[in-house]
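As a warm-up, study this chain.
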Amino acid sequence: MGILDYIFNRGKQRLSYDFDDIFKDVQQNSMKSIALETCANYIARTFSKSSFVFFCNETKKQDIWDYRINHKANPNQTAAEFWSEFVKSLIKNGEALAYINNRQEMFVVDSYVQKHSLTGDVFDISTIQNVPVSITAHYDEVLFIRVENDNLETFIDDLWNDYGSVLGRLFQNQKTANQLRFHMELPRDKIRERARDLANQASDKSEDTKESVSEKKESFLATITKKLENDSVVPILLPKDAKYEEYRSQTSIKVSYVEDIAKMKQQYINDVADILGIPNGLIHGDLADNQKNYDTYIATVIEPLAQKIVSAMNYIIFNRRELQKGNKVQMVGFKNYDLFSLSSNIDKLVSSGSFTRNEIRRELGYDPVEGGDVFLLTKNYMELGSIGKEKDEKT
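Now compare it with the structure written out below.
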């Protein structure tokens, strides 16, 4: 194939697929997925650090469920992996379903159909962990959570309509930045030039009937434009009497749009994070006001989701009678506490008899200790019931 054939794509088979549109769709879907994955993964990682604390007298139930929800959810996942996957599905899809079998093993469901009923919804489950199944589960056999972001995908699509064209232009500018372009002319001699002219004169009549002059110009311009868009080195062969000139500054300074692209992608992620209520500084690891942002994130994003999960787990683990007796589970481990900065306040809460040591330990995410459920009073940490006895002994 000659150089002219290469430049003008002669002799190549034309494909019927519009690959430009396909690649454009892939690029857009990829950017949207990056933003959503970044935010969903951040929330999921927060939940993977949490644990459940039991407040109950049902020792047998506590032993079974504590192992499942805090250690090993199913044969293929630890509890941390399960909760991370469950919350990630919840954020991305607006709802999440976990199937619980008769061994209290919990599995995140990939695909299902929900059938609504006033006596309790029924779920037809078809895929679990990429394994085809056929399970019909009632509401008390599943963990089903729905959140108020059903239209998250729509919001992200609308947001991309604003960012997509701008980001696409930046990518295109980066591809053509610092591009090497040159004009060349083939060697000529009188004999070859005369022979070509005679051949052109003989074929002008037949060719002009097939393709007009304007169509030839449009085809030439389209070919050159495509080369400029996609190739880093572009040779430009000009037809006879044609001229090519670029209207741009001739400078040796290299042009780069990489920083602009990075800023645009970061801003897009920021807007998706705003939809979910995540402070932007946390997503990008900024140190400024980190603790303040984290506390806001826990209060506005994590705790509402945790309350939904805790409410559903209490319904699954305990029956009505057990719940009325005060049996319950609670999620802890979200907040980062500096125990030394809290030591003075902890001392006041315990020494005043307002809280037991185990109540404080559970709030801080630590396991209870033996004897920690006794109320203490005064800074001597005496048992509340022993104060009167000590006075009687002295008299």
